[in-house]
Design goal:
With 239 residues, this protein is α+β, with helices and mostly antiparallel strands. 16% of the residues lie in helices and 44% in strands. Bound molecules: ligand LBFN2T5F. It catalyses: (2S,6S)-2,6-diaminopimelate = meso-2,6-diaminopimelate.
């Protein structure tokens, strides 16, 4: 089976172009027994319509994957692409060999949650909890406090020092180096929380992940711009 390996800020993916079983998805994602990735991106070209599904490392399906869709767009030669996903049609624009932009096909729904820190529940196609913290998160504490949500929502921790910082814990995976959709959810939470008013252009927020930057821009639609890198391709033997 043909595969392509890619990553967006260390959130890594295996792209495949055919149907496979859930067991094979899990095997492919396994870092010891397979190739290893946070998500498998299944992209099937149906007479020119690109139908895309995202599968977490544990075999659960995700409705949206921001870093993943940018990687898929990077794979194609075309500047503009249109992908059909469970969250709707996503338009992508390849800006150069590193940066890709995509527009969110969903109107965000944001609700405040009761917690000791400002916390928001953000639906943008997939589900996120965004927590405003003060510095690097204590994941033992956070995963303990939000244990009832871990199988249904991604948890984003954000804080502002000289810049906006973000750390991610993904449903179906655990800790990841970045989460594209989570970063859009974080921007929505910042806008809701009005914190961006003190930070210059409030419609454009750049988040610093563990290894780079992701920007979220509010125009008519919400856009994300960030890196997408293709790192390998090959054949995987399905047994
Ligand atoms: N890495 C992704 C998000 C993947 C989906 C998530 N784990 C879920 O189940 O919703 C991204 O870049 O958005």
């Amino acid at each position: 089976m043909k595969f392509v390996k890619a990553h967006g800020l260390g959130n890594d993916f295996i792209m495949i172009f055919q149907d496979i079983s859930k067991e094979d998805m899990i095997l492919l994602s396994d870092r010891k027994l397979g190739i290893g990735c946070d998500q498998v991106i299944q992209n099937i070209n149906n007479n020119g319509q690109y139908n895309v599904r995202f599968w977490n490392q544990d075999g659960s399906e995700a409705n949206l994957c921001g870093n993943g869709i940018r990687c898929l767009a990077q794979y194609y030669d075309r500047v503009i692409n249109k992908f059909h996903t469970n969250s709707g049609i996503i338009h992508t624009v390849k800006l150069n060999n590193e940066q890709v932009a995509f527009s969110l096909p969903v109107i965000p729904v944001i609700k405040q949650m009761s917690y000791k820190l400002p916390t928001y529940d953000v639906h943008i196609g997939n589900e996120h909890i965004v927590i405003f913290i003060n510095n690097e998160p204590d994941w033992d504490q956070i995963t303990h406090d939000f244990q009832d949500y871990l199988s249904i929502k991604n948890i984003m921790c954000i804080w502002h020092d000289k810049q906006w910082n973000i750390r991610s814990w993904e449903r179906g995976v655990g800790r990841t180096l970045a989460c594209g959709s989570g970063t859009i959810a974080a921007a929505c939470a910042v806008w809701e929380n009005n914190k961006s008013l003190t930070l210059g252009n409030k419609d454009n927020i750049t988040f610093h992940t563990e290894i780079g930057e992701l920007s979220v821009i509010k125009k008519k639609q919400i856009w994300q711009i960030g890196p997408a890198n293709i790192v390998a391709n090959g054949n995987f033997k399905l047994i």
